[in-house]
Each structure stands twice: as C-alpha cells, then as structure tokens.
Design a protein that fits this description.
Low-confidence stretches: 475-494
CATH superfamily of the largest domain: FAD-linked oxidases, C-terminal domain
Number of domains: 4
Helix content: 25-40%
Distance between the termini: 21 Å
Bound molecules: flavin-adenine dinucleotide
Number of strands: 19
CATH architecture of the largest domain: 3-Layer(aba) Sandwich
Number of helices: 16
C-alpha cells in the first residue's frame, strides 16, 4: 500500500526539532516517533488509504492539545485528530508531513448531571461508555453507531455519526449541547447550543476535523423508554420488505429503528454469527418500537399486520432482552460478516429518498450483474440510508477496479435520485472527489469560506472533504507562498 495523501514525509532535522518541541509540552511518553509504532496509526477503517504519520502525540488535556496546535502553527505543519480510527472514509488518515493528535488518553466522563439530563465527557470516551455511565439511573445516550463499543464521541461529533436508532431520535448533532474545542490557531473556546448568533456548534458538528479539535463534549441524555418491542419480519424479496417500510411510515408510525438486509447480507451474517434468521428469506426487516408500553403494544400489532399484508412469511417478536439481542446480532455484525463470504469488500454509504429505494436497489442489482461483482445490501430503511457492501476478490486481476466502478456508480445513483453521497460515514479523503457531483463550484467555495473562517492556514486535517484544497483567498487551483518546511526538501503539500 502506498501513501495516498500525496504528502512528502517530514524526516530529518525538521521532524526532530518539532518532536523535541512537542515533548517539552506533553507528559513523558506522549510523543511517538519510532517508525514501527507510527505504523499503528497509518490508516482508519478505510484500509486502502495509508500514510505513516510524521509524529503521533497522545495528549491528556485540552491545554496540551492547544500547545501542540500552536507548535504546528509555528512550524506550519498540518495536524489531524484521531479517536479510535474506526472511520470509514479515511477522515483520520494521517499526514506524513504532520502531527497526528490521538485522544486515547482523554477517556474520562467528567460530569453526569441527571437533573439537567446532560453529561460532560472527554473526546476519547467511547460512545457506549456514555450510556454505560448513566444506564443504572435509567438514562442513555441515543446515537448508536454499530461501532459504538470502540468509536469515540470526538469521532462521532466530527462525523455527525448516526446509527440504527437515529430515525426516531436524530443524529449526533441533535444530541450535542456544547463543545469545547481547540481552534486551528490553538485557542480553547466553547461552542454552546444556547449561544446567540450563528450556529457555530452546528457548523462544527460533522466538520470532520477540519475546523479544529474537540476537547470536551456535553451530550444530551434521554430517559430509557418504558417498553421496547423488537420484531423480525422475513420476506421473499426486497420489494416486499420495501413495501412494508413505506406502509409502516406512511401509516404514521415512527419506529425507533427500521433496518433491512438482503439475501446476501443474511447469508454473510449467518456464516459469521449464526443469527438463525428465517431460512429462504430474500430480505429481513428489523423493526424496533419504543415508548410507553400501551403505545408500543398497539404499534407492534399494527406493524405485524402491515408486514403480513406486504408479504412477510414469518414474524418473530423478541420476548426478552436475550431474544432482542439475538435479532440484532446479525444486523450488527453485517459489515464484518461479509469477510466470511468475500476476500475483500468496500463498505459504501449513500442516501436516497425512501420512496426511491426499490428503484435504486433494482439498479444496484443490474450494476452488480453487468460488472460481475456481488453487492450485499444492508440499510437503515427508514431514512433511505444504504450501506451496499461491494464484494470482490483482490487476488483476481481487475476485480478491485470493477468493484470501485460499481461502488462509484452507486453514489451516482444516489445523487441522480436526489439523495446524498454519504449518510453517516462522512466524506473524508475517500469521497472528496464526489463532492462536485452534489455541489457546484460556488457551493464548494462557500463551504471553503466557512472553513477559512476557522482555519485560515488550512492546517487542520487538510486534504479531506474538499476535492481541490486551497488556501484562503486563493484563486482556485493557484497556490501561494512557501511552506515553512521547504528546508526539509519538499514542496508545499496542502
Ligand atoms: C464496523 C463499523 C461499523 C460502523 N457503523 C457505523 C454506524 O452505524 N454509523 C455511523 O455513523 N458510523 C459507523 N461507522 C463509522 C465510524 O465508527 C464513525 O464514523 C465514528 O464516529 C468514528 O469514530 P472514531 O473515534 O473511530 O473516529 P476516527 O476514525 O478516529 O476519526 C474520524 C474523523 O473524526 C475526526 N476526529 C476524531 N476525533 C476528533 C476530535 N477529538 N476532534 C476533531 N476531530 C476528530 C478525525 O480527524 C476524522 O476526520 C462504523 C465503522 C465500523 C468500522
């Protein structure tokens, strides 16, 4: 694998000098320059993009991150924040010419304030750890990415992450009340949902590390629902399952989650975790209802009726938490499970309007047949967020290219149907080239102006999100000024 950032590694005296400066502001052992240890951080969940970071730092406080960022500014080197590295768009891909700021030593739940239904946590706290800290009191943190056992809240904020239950409860942006951030200049500031004026908190959430580094997050806590009902419905085909989804939502029910898997995804889950979904299913639908017990009982009867009317040949309702977990097991393992039926795969993430789902799925089938590439479909059916898993054999010449072509065409389909190139995995380095398919040059320039308002030197996670990175005030495509590390023998890279 090659360095996919296009940057020239910072080596020699420049790197040594920066590393010495960083060591002076960080605790012992918090600066990594050993080439073998640096390799640990060379990619995130998008493993075909790799770059060995110039330096890795493991700060413990916001003050230390601010000091690191100020040193980066002094030397004009880029910095990239990293949480758990589970991102699927290469957002945490390091720079060989820069500093990777890893939040793994910032894992404290600082405050739980139940009367105000909020918790304050450090950025390296995992998503699930927040719920675990408040569950004994009957509360939870709602956004639930499938990676929640390991991904960090700092990464969730940067990606505006979602999960199966975001249909009813909203994405990360709906659950963050305040952030403490280190700006790209090295100042520590707070962005609060109650701040008057522009919604800078809203702008920061989902900015993929390009507007600064989150050092503290205040999240909203929800009361655990009185009742949860989980149903599994098996259909002969995706079309029947799709009909059920439309009828459930069209009938005024908003389930907490409504997830669908097609036959190939079921086959993979079966091979990996023996989830025992009904044999012969062309699609399964998982519908979860929560709320007051009387309401969920009524809704669950209605969902059963609609599923049967839409062609379901088997229905199961979880009788207890163990059965509920068994129903979810196959869905939660779906991404990793395809590794059981294919040597390599691409996890795609796109959105289409719910009503366009049947047409888009049929087009994906056609693409799959035309290119001889299998596609397993797993999706948050309620909000049209597709996760096609494009399977290929990386030992077969040309297969990776064909898979990449299918994957790209799927994004085209999403855009053509008025959807989006990403539902929750972000743009990162992987999808930057697709941004012009959704946005005009004017749109992108306007976004760039926002970026420049936060980060006038383009040092915070450069090379991500935007297809043609440029510095503030530059004419598109024309670079200005020399990089301070020209002395290290390389040209300006960002
Ligand atoms: C098996 C699997 C299942 C997944 N399921 C889901 C899912 O259901 N829903 C979903 O939305 N995503 C999902 N993801 C994607 C991923 O887990 C999320 O994007 C997650 O939020 C990334 O968190 P992280 O801590 O791993 O961040 P990283 O991968 O380390 O970083 C992600 C981005 O956040 C930035 N970042 C990290 N920390 C900070 C910080 N403190 N300040 C500023 N920027 C920061 C990085 O620079 C990068 O741009 C899944 C991934 C895997 C591997």
């Amino acid at each position: 694998m090659t360095d996919t950032t296009g940057a020239t590694p910072v080596r020699g005296p420049a790197l040594d000098r920066i590393a010495r400066r960083l060591a002076a502001v960080l605790p012992p052992g918090a600066v990594i320059t050993d080439p073998v240890r640096l390799r640990t951080y060379e990619c995130d969940g998008l493993t075909h993009h790799r770059a060995v970071p110039g330096v890795v730092v493991l700060p413990e406080t916001a003050g230390q991150i601010a000091a690191v960022v100020r040193i980066c500014n002094e030397y004009g080197v880029p910095f990239v924040a990293r949480g758990a590295g589970t991102g699927l768009s290469g957002g945490a891909l390091p720079r060989t010419d820069g500093v990777l700021v890893v939040t793994s030593r910032m894992r404290r739940v600082l405050e739980v304030d139940l009367p105000n239904r909020r918790a304050v946590v450090e950025p390296g706290v995992t998503n699930l750890a927040i719920t675990e800290a408040v569950r004994p009191h009957g509360y939870y943190y709602a956004p639930d990415p499938s990676s929640q056992q390991v991904c960090t809240i700092g990464g969730n904020v940067a990606e505006n992450s979602g999960g199966a239950h975001c249909l009813k409860y909203g994405f990360t942006v709906n659950h963050v009340l305040a952030l403490e951030i280190v700006t790209p200049d090295g100042d520590i500031v707070t962005l609060d949902a109650d701040d008057p004026g522009y919604d800078l908190l809203g702008a920061f959430v989902g900015s993929e590390g390009t507007l600064g580094i989150t050092t503290k997050v205040t999240v909203r806590l929800l009361r655990a629902p009185e009742a949860v009902t989980t149903l599994l419905a098996a259909f002969g085909s995706i079309e029947q399952g799709g009909r059920a989804v439309s009828a459930i939502i069209g009938g005024g029910i908003v389930p907490a989650a409504i997830e669908m898997m097609d036959a190939l995804a079921i086959e993979a889950a079966e091979a990996a975790v023996a989830c025992a979904y009904p044999a012969g299913a062309g699609a399964v639908l998982i519908v979860e209802l929560d709320g007051p017990a009387a309401e969920t009982a009524l809704q669950s009867a209605e969902v059963e009726r609609v599923c049967l009317e839409s062609g379901a040949f088997e229905l199961r309702t979880a009788a207890d938490p163990a059965e509920r977990a068994a129903i979810w097991k196959g869905r939660r393992s779906a991404f990793a499970a395809v590794g059981r039926i294919s040597p390599a795969y691409i996890v795609q993430d796109g959105v289409v309007p719910r009503t366009a789902l049947p047409g888009v799925l049929a087009s994906i089938d056609r693409l799959s047949a035309e290119h001889g590439i299998r596609v397993a479909n797993v999706f948050h059916a309620g909000d049209g967020n597709l996760h096609p898993l494009v399977l290929f054999d990386d030992a077969e010449p040309g297969a990776a290219e064909r898979a990449e072509a299918v994957s790209g065409r799927i994004l085209d389909l999403c855009v053509e149907h008025g959807g989006s190139i990403t539902g929750e995995h972000g743009v990162g380095v992987d999808k930057a080239r697709y941004m012009p398919k959704m946005f005009t040059d004017d749109d992108l320039d306007t976004m760039q102006l926002v970026r420049c308002a936060f980060d006038s030197r383009g040092l915070s996670n450069p090379g991500k999100v935007f297809p043609t990175p440029r510095l503030c005030g530059e004419v598109p495509g024309v670079r200005r000024g020399a990089h301070p590390l020209v002395e290290s023998g390389r040209a300006e890279q960002f």
